[in-house]
Amino acid sequence: MKPIYTLILGVCLLGVLSCSTDDSSVTAPSTDLYFPPNNSDTWETTAAEDLNWDTSQLPDLLAFLEEKNSKAFIILHQGKIVEEHYFNSHNSTTPWYWASAGKTLTAAVTGIAEAEGLIDLQSKVSDYLGTGWTNAPSDKEALITNEHLLQMTSGLDDGLGDGTSPSDLQYLEDAGQRWAYHNVYVKLQDVIATASQETWSNYFNGALKTKIGMSGAWLSADDFNVYWSTARSMARFGLLSLANGNWNGDQIVPELFMYDATHATQTINEAYGYLWWLNGSGTYRLPQTQYEFQGALIPNAPSDMFAALGKNDQKIYVIPSQELVIIRMGEAADEENFALSNFDNELWEKLNAFIN
């Protein structure tokens, strides 16, 4: 069964119904989006003054970023660079790790692979990897679909560490009944590699990386792959996501999949889509806890923002209503963290003073 958002949006796009929604996060990007050329590092710019931003607040923002161990910071408006800054011996050609912000790359490529007919989100993971890819009883393992991996609702035990070998993947609850942040999502990379009969890296490069002019590579670390690239490559992916998977007229990631990816398709953690964090929900859950928190994920950030959040404060913020993409790479701003940290809300306080 397809997620309800896909069914509703599909009907709307076909013109069968006149559809409306109270969801303020549904914002179509401008037709004026700029896309940098794929074969060049040139990138058009826009002055903050021309956007009527308060440039008197910029020094405070940059001082804060440097103080908080940042290495790269980029703001795009309608695809053009408004601000681009590097700190602490970093520069525009230096690669840095995405950490869990790279989960969204896996999500995007999963959508591409489904559109190409290689995989089905509703199919069992074991249809591709065979039985025994977990240590769960066979009937429980058979409940886990590709979509459950995208949603973090596999039901596997998240208290056993980050490993993804069968011995690390043990049954805790039926798939779809529990949200838990876990590296088991990387099994989607194995699913796609098996279905495409290519290595994950090769399929990723052809399906996404080269099509939007990204640099970078997947490097193995602690039993799973981590993406490394320049900040501008991270910004390219953020721009693709702002444009609902379209790159300068080429629909690379299916638009309906992007809609589902950036909206909750499960009700356990409404602040989580397909490996994207969502700011517009009234409740949220965090890694390593089953507690449901009330309020917005990042209170100071726009309610329609969706974000790729990686360990030690790797950030991609996408704000459709303002046509913004904001990138931050660096060391942990304060203490090590899984994804979300106090830094997000503090940074948005500074950003609001500058942008608004």
From TrEMBL:
<keyword id="KW-0378">Hydrolase</keyword>
<dbReference type="GO" id="GO:0016787">
    <property type="term" value="F:hydrolase activity"/>
</dbReference>
<keyword id="KW-0732">Signal</keyword>
<protein>
    <submittedName>
        <fullName>Serine hydrolase domain-containing protein</fullName>
        <ecNumber>3.-.-.-</ecNumber>
    </submittedName>
</protein>
<dbReference type="InterPro" id="IPR001466">
    <property type="entry name" value="Beta-lactam-related"/>
</dbReference>
<dbReference type="InterPro" id="IPR012338">
    <property type="entry name" value="Beta-lactam/transpept-like"/>
</dbReference>
<dbReference type="InterPro" id="IPR050789">
    <property type="entry name" value="Diverse_Enzym_Activities"/>
</dbReference>
<dbReference type="Pfam" id="PF00144">
    <property type="entry name" value="Beta-lactamase"/>
</dbReference>
<feature type="domain" description="Beta-lactamase-related">
    <location>
        <begin position="72"/>
        <end position="329"/>
    </location>
</feature>
<feature type="signal peptide">
    <location>
        <begin position="1"/>
        <end position="21"/>
    </location>
</feature>
